[in-house]
Amino acid sequence: MARCKRTTHKNNIVILCEGSDTEVKYFCDLKSYVEELHPDSFSDIKILPVADEIIREKKGSRRKKTLRQPIPSLHSDKHYWCKWEHTDEEYELYKAQPTRYVRETQLYMEEDGYVEGWAVFDKDTFTDHQTAFKLAEEIEGLHIAFSSHCFEEWLLLHFERNPHLFSASVCKNDDKDRGCGTNVPGDCHGTVCLGGYIREKRYIPDYAKSQESIFTTYTLPHIPLCYLNAAWTRTLSDNPPYECNPYTNIDMLVKRLSGDTRIFHWYHTNENIALCGTTIRVSIANRTVTIENTGNRALILKADTCMLCNEYAEVTRRLSLDILEPKSNKEIQLAENEYFLHLRTGNDWSYILTTPSHSSATAG
Fold first, then answer.
1. Which of 274, 272, 308, 289 is nearest to 356 (CA)?
2. Residue 313: in which H helix or E strand, if any?
3. pLDDT at 21
4. Are 303 and 319 in contact (CB under 8 A)?
5. Cβ pair 180, 190 in contact under 8 A
6. What angle is formed at CA 91 by the lines to CA 87 and CA 92, rounded to 5 degrees?
7. Are 347 and 261 in contact (CB under 8 A)?
8. At what angle do helices 225-233 and 250-258 cross, to 10 degrees?
9. Is this model's pTM higher than 0.90 or not?
């Protein structure tokens, strides 16, 4: 049976989440924010949960899945409709998680006319990541918003950079959140699970997967720090995302929805950085930052393109106008509260950590 592909010229987007709690509530909160402040940004933003692969009934070209914890605002009962593969062979080919999430996003794009799709899922214990990422690469307009080890990594990055290899979102007793971080029996105190660490550090003291208004309460006040810290995770390894921990690119979807076109770059000291047609290298010694022009073109440093920031990525000082000739350098003495050298060229925002011993920025 041939599929009916629908075409559209609308600026619409479908976001299909692995979980039916944290991610869905987060993006519904973000959707409300976007629709209130930028009502003309998208003609439609559709957010879907993905429950266990339990097929309850078939109707037409759809199958019904069971939601363990339905969201009243989205579902009138404990079910929601999902896309149906027309043959058993198709279903067998794409049924493994997380490939299933990418495939269903593809079907919503093809059959419901969405021009852009995002599959949101975590590393967890899935083994089919390579297939899922390969499938997404083959489909124009389809993207993956991925976190390792879990979505809570993105939440933690609103407060600090932590290279610890967490292995669970929350520790569980009988499939229920144990409540680590609140001195319960068997509390891992945030050594195993990210949820426990977030509670232990009092970042979100009452954190729960059913938390409401996480975007407006926690993301908004910590922009651009959360974007910068997310960029940091992507510099920790050259391996594919599903082989990294920590890692997230959730920031890319958040910026896409909110219309934020800035591209954040995290650079290390003594690394060659392409900037305004030349290259620079930044080194640190005794609280003195040295910017060296290693290219063949003069670089103009001015207040709106070169500045220093505190640990929360807030600008503390703008540098005075200076011309850095090829093979020359400029030294800057750091104040006690200055942690980043920040360079801007259009929408490219680059940061270099100027205090190597300060590896984990904690937001107040």
1. 289
2. none
3. 82
4. yes
5. yes
6. 115
7. yes
8. 140
9. no
Q: What is the distance between the alpha carbons of residues 84 and 94, in angstroms, rounded to a whole number?
A: 11
Residue 99, token pair as written in the block: 């490939």
Please report, in angstroms and rounded to a whole number, the separation of the first and last CA atoms in the chain.
Answer: 57
Q: What is the largest CA-CA distance in the chain?
A: 71
Distances (CA, A) of 210 to 23, 62, 168, 265: 9, 28, 17, 32
Q: What is the rounded CA–CA span in Å between residue 187 and residue 178?
A: 8
- Compute the average pLDDT of residues 344-356: 89
Interaxial angle between packed helices 250-258 and 22-37, expressed in degrees from 0 to 180 and rounded to the nearest 10: 20
DSSP 168: B
Please write the tens of the pLDDT for every residue from 169-198.
999 999 899 999 999 999 999 999 999 999
pLDDT value, residue 57: 47
Name the token pair of 21: 């709690």
> Which H helix or E strand runs over 122?
strand 116-122
